[in-house]
Amino acid sequence: MDIRNFLIGMFATCSLMASAQERKNVIDEVIWVVGDEAILKSDVENARMEFLQQGQRFEGDPYCVIPEQLAVQKLFLHQAAIDSVTVSDADVFQEVDMRLNAVLLDFGSREKLEEYSGKSLTQIREQMFNSYKDKKMVERVQRSLVENVKVTPAQVRRYFKDMPEDSIPFIPTKVECQIITREPVIPIEEIEHVKDDLRSYTERINNGSAQFSTLALLYSEDKLSAQQGGELGFAGRGSYVPEFANVAFNLTDPKAVSKIVETEFGFHIIQLIEKRGDMINCRHILRKPRVSTEALQKCVNDLDSIAAEINKGLYTFDECVSVVSYDKDTRNNYGLLFDEETGLSKYEMKDLPTEVARTVAGMKVGEISKPFIMVNKKGKEVVAIVKLKNRVNGHRATMAEDYQELQNVVMNKLCDEKLEQWIRDKQKTTYIHINEDWQNCEFQYSGWIK
Q: Model confidence over 127-154: pLDDT tens digits?
C-alpha cells in the first residue's frame, strides 16, 4: 500500500456528509484518542459513507480501517505541530475551490448543494478548507521525512532481477506529437456585438433591474462559475491571467462593475465580492465572440495547403511551426506538445487532447494529419494539423528503455517503508487510547494497543 495515498480519502470528505448526519441527531462518542486529538464515531461514519458514495471498496472492516487511517493522520499532524509546519492559505483555497466546483457540477446548482448539506456555500467552503489544510500539512511532513531517500541503478537492477515477467510494470503506448494551429479571424462586428452585450449587463446591474449573479447564470460562457452566479472563489493574483488580475485586484467597491476586460479566454466584466489578505473572491461574466463557419473553413484550407507543401518537401514541419502556428506554448519548441508540469513530451493516448488522440491513433510515425477542428485549453475553437514524431508501443519495462519508470517504482517502495517505520516509531512515543468496543481489529500497525 502506498502510505502517501493512504489518507487522501480521509481529508476531502466530511463537509457534506457531516452536515447531513448532523440533521439526523446521531448519538456521537469519542472512540479513539491520539495525542490530544479525538476521533469521533461520526468521523468514521462520515468517511465510510463518502467512500461508498464514490464507489470505493474497503480492504477489511471499514470500522477498523477508517479509524486507523484517521489515527495515522493525527500522528502526522502532531508532527506538523512539533515542526511548526505551515501551508499557504492561497494554495489551500485554490484546491478547495477546484473540489467544490466539481461537487457543484454533481449537484447541478448551488441551491441543491446547500439544501442537501443544510449549510451555506461559505460554511461548506470553510469546512473543506480545514480538511484540505490538514491534508497539505500531512503531505509536507511526509515529503520532509523521505526527502533524503535515494535510489541507485544497482538497487533498481537488484529489485527487478528475479521478478516474474508478469510482475514487471507494463508501460502503455506513448507518443510524441508536433502541432500547428491557426485561429480563425473574428470580425470587428462580432467583437463589438459581444461588448455591447456586456455593456447592457453592466447597465442593468447598475440601475438595479438585474443582479450580477443572475446574469452570470444566464449568459456567462464560463459554465463552471456560471452555476455559482459567476463566483470564482478566493484566489491569489497568480491564479488569473495578468489582464484579468490587474482589473480584479484593483476593485474596491463590491457594488461596482469593472470595465470590459479582454483576455485570451474572451471578454469579461468583473464584480468584487470580498478581499481577504492577498486573495480576492469575485464574480465574472465571460462572453466569447462567435467563430463563423466560413472563418473556420478558411483556416482548414490554409493548413491543408501548408501540409501539402511540407509533404512535397518545400518546407519542413519544424520550419512552418515558427512562422504560421498560433499556439504560443509550442511555437518556440518546434510545435512539440509537452506537459507543462513535468516537461515531458511523451504522452499516453488518454492524456492527449481528445481531438489530437483521435487523429494520431491511426497515423504512422512521420505522417502529417489532415486539418481538424479542436477546442484548445483556453476554450477557443482552432484548426490544427499534427505530425506524429514518435511512437513507443506498450511493453514490459526494461532497464535500457524505461529506467525512470523502474526507478520510480523502487523509490516509492523505499519511501513507503521509511514512512511505515516512522509510524511504528511514532506510536511508541504518542499517547493512544482506543475504546474497548473498537479494539477487536486486525490493524495494519500493531502498536495502537499497548
A: 888 889 999 999 999 999 999 999 999 9
